[in-house]
Structure formats: C-alpha cells, structure tokens
Specification:
The structure holds 2 protein chains of 2 kinds.
Chain A: E1 5-16, H1 55-67, E2 71-72, E3 75-76, E4 79-82, E5 92-95, E6 102-111, E7 114-127, E8 131-134, E9 144-147, E10 154-160, H2 167-184, E11 196-206, E12 216-221, H3 224-243, E13 251-256, E14 261-267, E15 277-278, E16 285-286, H4 289-298, H5 303-314, H6 318-324, H7 328-340, H8 344-361, H9 373-384, H10 390-403, H11 407-414, H12 422-435, H13 437-444, H14 451-461, H15 468-480
Parallel strand pairs in A: 12-13
Antiparallel strand pairs in A: 1-10, 1-11, 2-6, 3-16, 4-5, 4-15, 6-7, 7-10, 8-9, 11-12, 13-14
Helix pairs in contact in A: 1-4, 2-3, 5-6, 7-9, 9-10, 12-14, 12-15, 14-15
Chain B: H1 8-16, H2 22-40, E1 43-46, H3 48-56, E2 67-71, H4 98-105, E3 109-114, H5 148-155, E4 161-165, H6 172-177, E5 181-184, E6 205-209, H7 212-222, E7 252-256, H8 257-261, H9 266-281, E8 285-289, H10 297-312, H11 331-342, H12 345-358, H13 364-387, E9 390-394, H14 409-414, H15 420-425, E10 429-436, E11 442-448, H16 454-468
Parallel strand pairs in B: 2-3, 2-4, 7-8, 7-9
Antiparallel strand pairs in B: 1-3, 4-6, 5-6, 5-10, 9-11, 10-11
Helix pairs in contact in B: 2-3, 7-16, 10-12, 10-13
The chains are: A alpha+beta, B alpha/beta.
Chain lengths: ~475, ~475
C-alpha cells in the first residue's frame, strides 16, 4: 500500500561576495589568476599573522540581509570552525556561529498556487578555503597541489527555513535568490566559477504528520538544474526505502551528475566536531543603526518591485515585465530607451525580440553592447515618420547593434530610405500587375488575400524599401481601374 | 663593568657623546656571548654577521646601536623563527613582526633569537626542543620561562635588553628569576602582528630590561596602534619616560589578601613586604583588599589558553612549511605523524587539554564557564582600581628553582598563580627585583595597574628602584 508523502527541503547557499579584496587581508579576489598568485602571509596563515576585517564584506552582508527581509544583528562576533584539511591554511575557518549578522527573513517565489514565502533562517559571513588540484584522477594521483587564491575570499552563507516543498520550488528559490544578489551587485553568482554553491537538506514525512522525517544532506550540485534533479532523485530514493520497510539514515550524500544519482559520502557518526569558539584575534563587531540605515538608503529597487512597477508604470503585460526585469542591466537599458521613446510596448517588443536574440548570438554582456538606447529610440522615430518600414527596421537594428552607428547614418549609407513617392511606386506596381495576370484575376474574383502576393513582389523589386501601406493602396486602385 | 653590562640609557649616552662607537658596543656583547653562551645557552640563533653588517652603516633613532635580543616566537624576515620547536626548526619567515619593524626603525641591532619553552608553553625554558637555558645567577637553576632565553641573555650581558612575550607570566616570571625588570603591557598596547600565537586573547609582547628607565624606553618604541592587529588599541602615542619620577606620595597601593595568605617561600613574602614598607615610608597609602575570583585564575587560565592554543597551533600540519613526517600513506596520516613527531610533550599535553575543553559536551562546562569567571575577575580588578593606583604582589611564589626539580605539570602550573590574573584581566604589570634570597637568587616584586595604567606603574616602579638600589647588581659568571 503506497502512502502519500510530503517533501521537506531546506537549502544552504554559499555566495562569494564581489569585493575587490579578501575578507581578512588585501589580496585580490580576481578569478582565474595563476595558482597562489593572490596570496600573502595573512591568507596563507603564516605563523604570527592576524586577520583584519574588510568592512565592505559587512556592507554586502547587511545589504543581502535587508534585501531578504532579515533582521540585522547589532552584536556580531566571529568564531573559529576547526578542522584539518590541506586547503585550509590555519586549520580553522573564520565564520560566525551563534551570532550571525542576519536572521529571520524571507524570499517570495512564484509557484503554481501563487506567491509563496520561503523563510531565511540566517545569513552569516565567513572566509572561503583554497582548492586542491589532483594530478590526473584523484585515486591515481601521486601528488595533490593546493591553490590558495580562493582562501579568504568572502562568503555569505544563506540558510533557508525548511519551507520548500518540491524540487521545483527549490529551483525557484535559487533563481529568485540569485536574481536578488545579482541586483544588489554583492555577488557574481557564477556557479561555474564556484561563486554560488548550494547544499540541500531533504526529508519526507507522511502527509499530516507534524514531526520531520530523518533528513539527508546533498552536496556537489553544480547547477540549479542539478539541484532540482538531485532532489527529485533523493525524494524518490527515500520513498522507495520507506516503501520497502527500510529506514532513512541521517547522512551526507553526494550528487553524481553523470550517474544521475546521489551516493552516500559519510554517516552521522563521522560528522566532525568543529569545536567552535570565539576568535580571539577579532573583536566583536557592533553594527549600529546608522550603519544599517546607510546601507538601506543605498539599496537598489529589487526584481519583484521593479517588475510590479513596470506593469503599473508602463502598462506592460506581466510577461514582458518579467523578461525585462530579469537582470538589473536589462531593466536599466529598457528604461533608458523609454526615456527617449515613450511607446513602452514598442520598446519592449524590440528588446525582448531582436535585442535579446542578438545578445545571445554575439555572446555579449549588456554593458558591451554598442547600440545606445538613443539609437533604438531614433530608429523607432524613423519608423513613425515613415522613413523606414518595419521590415527595413530589422536590418537597421542589426546594423546598429553590431556597429554602434546612428540609425540615420545607416539608412543613408545603405540607401534604406522608404520609397513613398506615389509616382515611383505606381510604375513598379504596374510592372508587377502586368507580370502576374492570373493573380490579378484571382483578386478580381474575390480572393482578396492574393493582394499580399503582389505587395510582396513590389517589396522584392524595391528590396523592401517600398512603403507597404501605399503599395497596398495603389495595387487596389490599379486593379479596380483595370 | 664592561659595555655589555650597561643599560640602554647608559649606552645611549656613551654613543651620543662619541665616547664609544656602535662597533665597540657590539664587540663587547659578542665577546660576552663568546665567553658565556656555552653555559647559559640563551640563544637559538645568533645573528652576529647581520649585526656587524648593521653597525657598519649609520644608525639613527632612540635605540641606535643598541644590541638587543628577540624571543624566537617573534617573526623575523629572513631569520629563522622556531618558537623553540622541532616543528619550525627550519622555518624562515618572509615577513617581520610589527615590533621588529619598530626596533629596526629605532636603530636597534638584533643580536639573535632567544630560547624559550616550545610555543611559549612552560615556565623553565626546559621545554625547548633544542636545549635548556640556565640562570646566570646560578647555572644549576632555571632562568624561568617561557621567555627564559631573553631573560638569561640580558642577565648575562649577552644583550642590553630583550623582547619577550607574556601569556600567563612568561615575561615577568623569568625577569624575576633573573633579577631583571619585565613589563607586560596592557592588552592591545603592543601589536601582536608577527607574534606566533599561543593564546591570542592573552598574548602580549613586552620588554625585559636591566632597569625601569630601559623598560620605558623600549615600550616607547614598540607600543602604538597597528592596523594589522585588530586587538591593537587606538590611542595617542605616550612618552613613557615622562613617568620616570621619584614620587610615591599619596600613591594608593592595594595588597590582595589572597596573595599573602597563601603558603609559599617566606623569603619571597618578606622581601616583598619589606619593599612595600619602604614605599609606605615614602608616602604611599597601603591597604589590604580582596580579589575572591583569583582562586580560580590558574584553572580558568589553563582552560582558556589551551583552548585557544589547540586551534592556533592547528596550522602546523606539514602542508605548507615546517616539519613534515616522511612516514605517511595519506594526508590524514601525514597530519597525525607530523604533529606527533614534531611537537614536544608539554605542547601536546596542552593541545589535547584544549581540544577537550572545546569539544561538544565539554565546551559549556569548561570554556563558557571559564569565560564567565574571567569577566568576573575583570570586574573585581576594575572595582579595586576605582580606589587604588596599584596592586602589589610577589611576582612568583618561589625563587628560581633547580633545573629538573619540578616535573609534575600541576606543580609547575601553580607557579603561575601570581602572574596569570594580570593576563586574564588584560591589565599591565611590571616586575623588578626587590631583594635576594639566602641562596643569592633574585626575588621579584610585581606592580599591577589598571588598563593603560603603564605610566603609574612605571612611576611607582622607578621610585621603588631608586629606594632599593638593586639595579646595578649583576650575576658573577665565570668567564671563559
């Protein structure tokens, strides 16, 4: 007899903060440098060195906390998390144990049942560890190399409440969280470069039961999709274990992306005792109200607010507003265009269509796009004035995007000006009518749609430059008068 | 007296008036080292060549041309820094401690790195991985520890003065044992950047000198805010020599009864009380007070200090620098073997103890409780300093004992009872000689002040020094 189960998921997200320098020394945080280039006696943990807190890290953590509706704690302290590993130079990680900087917030996500709140239990600051590089495969390698560039890069760990009920919700939570952090500019959120990492706790319980079931912790998921798939697999695995009369064991499991399954890593008994205690090298950090106020005043508009405002202010469909507010850069670009050209829906169509297509094709960041919002607005005005047709506009747009030239210049140089001279167009129309007698017969006998074919022929003759409205009218006049 | 028996200020005078050259001063010290080091064994590394090179150039600053010794747990760029441990036997740091930079800027000449108990854990210098250091007043006896090498070097004329570090008494106890002045500054006064940590919440660097004036001179150089040490206090640069005044009138002195009720060497107690009488005769007001939490200070010191040490010393894992075991099949074994092979007995004992007090299940019971008592102790000291300028006690319950005579760890830990409360409270304290035992071993008197009360204790100690006139006594070492 199969029972109905409810899934309980909690996520722990580590986000590298986008500060210029590390959390406790002045080394650069730049990604991709030669191994061990960005190191100094402090981040290498050489005997006698001491940490000095980078205040920017605190600014960013507060910013994240405010954006995620958290309470910011006035009294902060740093603790040592002790464990031995070659990538951890001091053999302890400086973290925050019992006094995290932010607590008790939430994120709103969209689900099929509507908006849902996922609680944020806490956010704390800590330092990243280095990276081990094995020569060849990990089993066969005769030596392991350590790269300490990443050591001391600031992290915030964002711990969700166990409020997530499906793998899809988990993904929605991550997507929303990533979007918020990117909007704030506090993290690059690049999963491939490891600036965003996610572990998941998952358990199941019979529907109606109050107590949580035994949970497992999932690690090594390198994309949002992997998180979703790992959770889907794990939920099914747990159901199967229970269905077979077994028991869930509290353990840490690693996701194998190629095998498409989770594999047991270590049990509860092997869990480390980190022996947290206050770091004597860092005095308690007091975050006063002015500090929080200063950060609060600098907070940008967040994605959901922006989306709602776009619908309200520009009368855009929800869908458009969602696409346009996907990133802060895109939303800013859109608004800069609207400032120059007030038909927001027209701007939206071009940005959602050709702009995003070309961005993807050319593999560009918005900041790298040569076409300015003024260019796009200029092109839309040329259309309104009948200087170019919408078809020609596509060509102009692509050219602007690639070269950054003014629309007028492109129209001029390429001779793309619309032909609106009635005499000139009449000549071409007559030629087309002459060459297509059977089509003309069809039109006369009432197949009105066939006009389109003749319009197309005229456009072909003029390489798209003919004013389509005028062409349509002239064809009708000529056929009637035949 | 030879040049190497003079104080910093005496040498400065001779150098400034061109009576002697920096080369002549250095030669005197190097000759003394040559003569006595074999017996005293104060140094781990002697940097005679670097010192000669340095005096060949022009030196400027308040310590120009003064030969000093530095404890071997203070990082010196290009000069090995071992903490007297096999673990760091060949470790050569790529950077200087802030205090070493400051000595350098002041024109001091570093003669070498002094022996100590391994990682500053011990009170005899007998826990050095390399060799024992002996007391110049009696070579059968210990010089104290952990800064025993620094104290012995200064007492023997192998350095004009030295830097030590004090976590629970490691400057004051050896200074007292060797008949010298030792100052543990207020926590946060001297930068810890470059001091190999034993317990970061208690560690403080300070001077070991031949008289109070030298202590003030050296403190002037090494103190001051350092942006590389978050526990370093932002305060205006103080000129501590301004407090070198003979004036005890109206000075309010507290004698904590807990210190005087205990049963310990009566010669020590009598000598200290005699000194207090002399201060009273000069106008000081002396009263008995009580510090009830003192009773727990040794216990909580060993909980807090070893807890921190178990973490601070975890970095010595064989991965990046220092000793690495050759016998290991995998990385975990490498960690284990490296630490088992390269740490000494006492360091292992304290790491194990510290690991235990931080462990789940013990943390609340030991560490958290100890922190609470520490807070209580701090408050008791604050209360006393509301009404008194100084607290006066013996520095140690005994004089320097025979090497090898105290072997039980608990016995030796009790020897710290008079010094550890000062570190726990973060306050300053100075020791100076107040007499000699019947066996002609020095006895130290300890003056404690409130936080940042260095000025007051320097003034009182200077006044007492002038009353006692012991500062020119030097041990008679057989010279080769």
């Amino acid at each position: 007899m199969s029972r109905e189960y409810e899934t309980i998921i909690g996520l722990e997200v580590h986000a590298q903060l986008a500060t210029e320098t590390k959390i406790f020394c002045n080394c650069s945080t730049e990604f991709g440098a030669e191994p061990n280039q960005h190191t100094c006696p402090v981040c290498l943990g050489l005997p006698g060195t001491l940490p000095v807190l980078n205040k920017k890290v605190v600014d960013y953590a507060i910013m994240a906390g405010l954006a995620l509706n958290c309470t910011i704690n006035g009294y902060n302290k740093f603790d040592r998390k002790n464990y031995f590993y070659p990538d951890l130079p001091k053999a302890y990680q400086i973290s925050q144990n019992d006094f995290p900087i932010c607590e008790d917030g939430y994120i709103e996500i969209d689900t099929e049942e509507g908006t849902k709140r996922i609680g944020i239990t806490r956010i704390h600051m800590e330092e990243d560890a280095g990276k081990l590089v094995h020569e060849g495969s990990i089993d066969q390698a005769t030596a392991s190399l350590v790269d300490y560039n990443r050591t001391g890069i600031p992290l915030i760990e964002i711990v969700s409440a166990p409020d997530i009920r499906t793998p899809a919700e988990a993904r929605a939570y991550l997507t929303q969280l990533k979007q918020i952090l990117e909007y704030l500019g506090v993290s690059d959120c690049n999963m491939e470069e490891g600036s965003l990492r996610c572990d998941a706790n998952v358990s199941i319980r019979p529907v109606g039961q109050k107590e949580f079931g035994t949970k497992t912790e999932l690690k090594n998921m390198n994309s949002f999709r992997a998180v979703e798939r790992a959770l889907e697999y794990e939920v099914e695995r747990q159901k199967k274990v229970l269905a077979e009369g077994g028991e869930i064991i509290q353990e840490t499991r690693t996701w194998d992306d190629s095998l498409n399954k989770t594999i047991s890593m270590r049990g509860k008994e092997e869990a480390a005792d980190y022996r947290y205690f206050p770091d004597p090298d860092l005095p308690p950090l007091v975050v006063d109200r002015e500090w929080v106020e200063r950060i609060n005043a600098s907070l940008p508009e967040l994605p959901r607010e922006k989306r709602e405002r776009f619908v309200r202010e520009y009368a855009l469909p929800e869908y458009d507003a969602g696409v346009l507010t996907d990133t802060r850069e895109l939303a800013d670009y859109f608004e800069a265009c609207v400032a120059e050209y007030s038909d927001a829906k027209a701007v939206s169509n071009w940005i959602m269509g050709d702009f995003l297509r070309l961005l993807k094709e050319e593999n560009l960041e918005i900041a790298e796009v040569k076409m300015t919002p003024a260019h796009l607005a200029g092109m839309l005005k040329l259309m309104d004035e009948g200087v170019i047709s919408s078809k020609i506009a596509k060509t102009v747009f692509e050219e602007m995007f690639k070269t950054g030239k003014e629309p007028e210049q492109i129209v001029e140089e390429k001779g793309l000006k619309q032909i609106s001279d009635a005499g000139e167009l009449e000549e071409i129309v007559l030629k087309v009518i002459e060459a297509n007698p059977s089509v003309v017969e069809d039109i006369k006998s009432g197949k009105d749609k066939a006009i389109g074919f003749l319009v197309g022929q005229v456009m072909k003759e003029t390489r798209g430059k003919a004013n389509p409205g005028m062409v349509n009218q002239i064809i009708r006049e000529k056929i009637e008068s035949l | 007296m030879e040049l190497c028996d003079l104080t910093i200020h005496e040498l400065r005078e001779k150098l400034e008036t061109n009576e002697v050259t920096a080369e002549e001063v250095l030669d005197s010290f190097l000759r003394r080292i040559e003569a006595v080091e074999e017996k005293v064994r104060a140094y781990v590394t002697i940097t005679a060549d670097e010192a000669r090179e340095r005096v060949s150039g022009e030196l400027k600053g308040s310590l120009a041309g003064i030969p000093l010794a530095v404890k071997d747990n203070i990082s010196t760029e290009g000069i090995r820094t071992t903490s007297s441990s096999k673990m760091l036997e060949n470790y050569i740091p790529p950077y200087n401690a802030t205090v070493v930079e400051k000595l350098d800027e002041a024109g001091a000449v570093i003669l070498g790195k002094t022996n100590m108990d391994e990682f500053a854990m011990g009170g005899t210098t007998g826990f050095s991985a390399f060799h024992e250091t002996r007391n110049p007043w009696n070579l059968e006896h210990v010089p104290g520890g952990s800064s025993g090498g620094s104290a012995a070097a200064v007492a023997a004329g192998e350095a004009a003065a030295a830097l030590g570090s004090d976590t629970g008494g490691s400057i004051r106890q050896p200074a007292a044992f060797c008949g010298l002045v030792g100052l543990k500054p207020t926590y946060g006064t001297v930068s810890r950047y470059g001091l190999l940590a034993y317990a970061g919440s208690l560690d403080q660097i300070g001077p070991i000198t031949r008289d109070i004036e030298d202590a003030a001179l050296l403190l002037n150089v090494i103190s001051g805010h350092d942006s590389r040490d978050s526990s370093s206090v932002r305060q205006e640069q103080t000129d501590y020599t301004a407090f070198l005044q003979e004036d005890l009138s109206g000075m309010r002195i507290a004698l904590p009864k807990e210190y005087y009720e205990l049963d310990y060497n009566p010669e020590v107690k009598e000598s200290v009380l005699a000194a207090v009488k002399k201060m009273e005769a000069e106008g000081a007001i002396v009263e008995e007070v009580s510090l009830p939490s003192i009773e727990y200070s040794v216990a909580i010191y060993y909980i807090l200090a070893t807890g921190e040490a178990s973490s601070s010393l975890a970095r010595y894992d064989g991965v990046r620098y220092g000793y690495r075991s050759k016998e290991a099949a995998n990385v975990t074994e490498m960690f284990k073997n490296t630490r088992s092979e390269a740490f000494g007995e006492e360091v292992k004992r304290r790491i194990l103890f510290g690991t235990h007090v931080l462990s789940a299940g013990s943390y609340e019971e030991y560490y958290v409780k100890a922190q609470k008592i520490r807070t209580l102790l701090i408050k008791e000291f604050e209360e006393i300093f509301k009404n008194y300028d100084l607290i006066v006690t013996p520095t140690t319950p005994e004089t320097a004992f025979k090497a090898g005579s105290i072997t039980a760890p608990l016995e030796s830990y009790k020897m710290d009872a008079f010094t550890v409360p000062v570190n726990l409270a973060g306050i300053p304290a100075i020791t100076l000689p107040c007499g000699f035992s019947s066996a002609n071993l020095p006895i130290g008197i300890q003056l404690m002040g409130p936080r940042f009360g260095e000025g007051k204790i320097i003034q009182a100690a200077y006044s007492l020094e002038k009353l006692l006139q012991l500062e020119n006594k030097r041990p008679e070492l057989e010279v080769r």
